[in-house]
Design goal:
Blueprint lengths: L18 H17 L4 E7 L12 H12 L3 E7 L6 H6 L6 E6 L6 E2 L4 E10 L20 E2 L5 H8 L7 H6 L15 H9 L5 E5 H9 L5 E5 L16 E8 L4 H25 L9
Parallel strand pairs: 1-2, 1-3, 6-7
Antiparallel strand pairs: 3-9, 4-9, 5-7, 5-8, 5-9
């Protein structure tokens, strides 16, 4: 999802306008311009492999193109230089683009389409280690010392619940070069997580299936990738941790027309979407009916 597209500059001639008036005016201009060009589908994107890449090789890039083709529109990628978690606030909500790919269904910040795939967090290990994980009381958990995991993710909460978080902290923070994550977003590189498993620097990686599937598939060392078992160890709030998510496209809360158009296009594009996901190697679960 991406092309370098910065926010519209503020010229000195706007100096006497209040910031609220200016924001409304710019949003109105952006909406009007797009209303006159409904032959385009403006896709918010960031350069974060494997999801989206400026060279178009991200699997979400390819899915967005398939959707645009089903709508008979031209896909136009609007790329942010910031991480993808800021796309809704800084790009979609500012009318700089109109669709965000790969948000969890029901995300409260937006309107989400019907989901186009469903997958889970997974455990990735070297095949020659023959590590399986039937449940969260499995004896194989004792074999896992260094565990690669994205920060602030459901697997992190699970590691805390089963008492394996504190001992793993030094290794986990080494994945982000010991940067201080407080008050800022720090992404753990999925390629690095899998490479650490390959090189025996980590015993396992716990990550979202679509985030690491590409690197598991192309690994020079045979790897196992299995869906994480459901949580049977309630956390301190007596709630279970979810690992399975349905992924959707998102539009602004007032853009019901585009939401409907995307939902109408999805069935036409779903076969192509499935081919893209399968080619990526993502473990797919059945979509809720």
């Amino acid at each position: 999802m991406t092309s370098k597209h910065s926010a519209l500059p503020t010229s000195k001639k706007w100096g006497k306008l209040s910031s609220i008036t200016l924001s409304l005016l710019m949003a109105g201009l952006s909406s009007a311009a797009y209303a006159n060009n409904s032959q385009e589908l403006r896709i918010c994107a960031s350069n974060e492999a494997p999801f989206s890449q400026t060279d178009g090789q991200g699997f979400e890039n390819r899915i967005a193109v398939a959707i645009a083709e089903a709508m008979e529109r031209k896909p136009v990628f609007i790329y942010s230089e910031r991480p993808g978690i800021y796309l809704v606030r800084d790009y979609l909500d500012q009318n700089l683009c109109d669709v965000v790919m790969g948000l969890d269904q029901g995300d409260p910040r937006v309107l989400t389409t019907n989901p186009y795939y469903r997958t889970s967090y997974v455990i990735v290990t070297r095949k020659d280690k023959n590590i399986t994980l039937k449940d969260w009381n499995d004896d194989n958990l004792a074999k896992l010392t260094n565990i690669a995991v994205p920060l602030n993710s459901p697997p992190v909460e699970m590691l805390k619940a089963i008492g394996k978080y504190e001992n793993n902290m030094n290794y986990m923070y080494s994945l982000i070069d010991f940067k201080q994550p407080r008050n800022q977003y720090v992404r753990v590189d999925p390629a690095r997580m899998i490479n650490d498993v390959v090189q025996n620097k980590a015993d396992a990686a716990l990550a979202f299936g679509s985030e690491v599937a590409r690197y598991v598939k192309t690994s020079s060392v045979p790897l196992d990738m299995a869906i994480l078992p459901p949580d049977t160890v309630p956390d301190h709030n007596n709630q279970t941790i979810g690992f399975v998510y349905s992924e959707s496209m998102a539009v602004r809360k007032d853009d019901t027309a585009l939401l409907e158009a995307l939902n109408q296009a999805l069935p036409k594009a779903q076969t192509k979407i499935n081919e893209i996901l399968q080619d990526e190697g993502i473990p797919l679960l059945e979509l809720d009916s």
